Amino acid sequence: MADDAPLYSALGVIRARGAIGERSLADAVAHADRFVSLIPPDARTVVDLGSGGGLPGLVIAWRRPDVHVTMVERRATRADLLQRAVAGLQMSDRVAVLATDVAVVCRQLPRSFDVVTARSFGDPGLTAGFIDQLLAPDGVGLVSEPPAERTDVWAEALRKSPALTDGGLDLGIRRLKRPAVAT
Question: Is residue 1 scored above 60 in pLDDT?
Answer without folding.
Answer: no
